[in-house]
Backbone:
């Protein structure tokens, strides 16, 4: 893709006045994400690097970068904090990395809508919204470091999805301003369903420069741990809590033994051999939660209300893909899957069949108005062939795997080509310079 005759010194001169990073150590850090969670992606992506990083502070600087890339036919990879796990922001063909973290203005919060630049940290936006009685509807377990643009470009859901579904559900992401990869670049505004053209598109078809997202009423949340003797007892409790419309919750995470043993900071609250539920519930729902815990034979071992001082990490940082992070800190041979089970019958079949080879980790979320169990199971990796067998076994029995062992957009989650995203890329990136090699629809177009 890159012309062999690129004079990078001349490119740097062309970008004078902007923050340009060429230091080898920083280039390496800013070229990678958490792809190493996957033993399949490790050898494929380990040596991929950009030629330089540009960190714009405003839209006019983004425009200059785009013009330079188009003029010299240089690939461009857009990046937030780099907390993804599939190589979404790793440049396959070198070129320029556009680091958006300095575009971090919260433009306004008006009622239940926030307008922000893409580099705003999720934690900063959430804190600012709470001063006005609102909060983010959902966020990833990388709450402290992830940016809102990176979350929307590469994520799908997280803490809060038990109530508000996924980012792609109507009403969650309201609008996006996008700069095209042309010379001169155009500034487009996408609203309503048109936002799906760039939502979870890995930055392959337009540079997001501004977002409008819907907020939720802020509640005082309590972090709670409940333990169980049997895994399916814990899973049924999780489904019952998720289905309980009168109990307000933001997180319902169920982890089978031995996963709780990997949560070293929570050790005193997780008895050996027990299965656990990590929960966020509104303080007003704590009394009703106690009745549900008793009904399903659980034992509450920890509860911290919003008013109590926080000691150590908050419970959400042990859930979603942080569960994998903590497990791999103890056993780096572990990897993971992402699975929509849809019902507890499939969960139980997989749990019984695979046993300790695939320790079960569930996150409940709403899909089509119904709470379902989704999995981020750990996998004791042996070979790629065995991993593919595990995936096939799930899919043949009705589970949907969002494969975290591929960097190709369509092969990971939805498994189908999105004609809207392809058509939009053909319009806004006619030279195919944006994050090349990640969109199968573009690679296979006729």
Residues:
């Amino acid at each position: 893709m890159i012309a062999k005759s690129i004079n990078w010194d001349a490119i740097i001169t062309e970008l004078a006045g902007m923050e340009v990073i060429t230091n080898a150590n920083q280039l390496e850090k800013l070229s990678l994400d958490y792809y190493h969670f996957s033993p399949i992606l490790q050898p494929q992506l380990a040596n991929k690097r950009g030629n330089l990083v540009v960190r714009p502070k405003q839209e006019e600087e983004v425009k200059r970068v785009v013009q330079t890339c188009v003029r010299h036919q240089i690939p461009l990879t857009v990046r937030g904090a780099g907390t993804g796990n599939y190589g979404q922001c790793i440049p396959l063909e070198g070129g320029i990395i556009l680091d958006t973290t300095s575009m971090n203005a919260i433009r306004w919060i008006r009622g239940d809508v926030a307008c922000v630049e893409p580099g705003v940290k999720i934690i900063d936006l959430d804190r600012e919204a709470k001063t006005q009685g609102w909060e983010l509807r959902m966020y990833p377990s990388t709450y402290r470091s992830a940016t809102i643009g990176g979350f929307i470009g590469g994520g799908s859901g997280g803490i809060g999805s038990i109530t508000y579904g996924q980012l792609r559900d109507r009403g969650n992401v309201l609008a996006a301003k996008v700069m095209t990869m042309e010379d001169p670049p155009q500034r487009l505004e996408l609203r309503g369903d048109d936002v799906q053209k760039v939502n979870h598109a890995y930055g392959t078809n337009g540079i997001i420069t501004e977002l409008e997202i819907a907020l939720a009423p802020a509640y005082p949340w309590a972090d709670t741990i409940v333990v169980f003797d049997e895994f399916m007892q814990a899973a049924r409790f999780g489904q019952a809590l998720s289905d309980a419309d009168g109990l307000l919750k933001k997180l319902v995470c169920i982890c089978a033994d031995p996963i709780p043993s990997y949560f070293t900071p929570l050790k005193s609250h997780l008895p050996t051999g027990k299965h656990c539920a990590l929960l966020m519930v509104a303080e007003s729902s704590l009394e009703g939660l106690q009745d549900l815990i008793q009904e399903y034979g659980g034992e509450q071992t920890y509860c911290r209300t919003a008013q109590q001082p926080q000691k150590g990490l908050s419970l959400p940082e042990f859930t979603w893909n942080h569960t994998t992070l903590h497990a791999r800190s103890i056993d780096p041979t572990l990897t993971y899957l992402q699975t929509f089970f849809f019902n507890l019958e499939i969960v139980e079949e997989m749990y019984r069949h695979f046993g300790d080879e695939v320790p079960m980790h569930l996150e409940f979320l709403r899909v089509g108005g119904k709470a379902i169990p989704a999995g981020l199971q750990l996998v004791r990796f042996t070979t790629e062939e065995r991993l593919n067998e595990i995936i096939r076994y799930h899919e043949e029995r009705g589970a949907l795997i969002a494969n975290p062992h591929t960097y190709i957009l369509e092969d990971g989650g939805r498994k189908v080509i999105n004609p809207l995203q392809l058509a939009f890329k053909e319009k806004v990136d006619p030279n195919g310079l944006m994050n090349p090699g990640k969109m199968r629809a573009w690679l296979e177009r006729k």
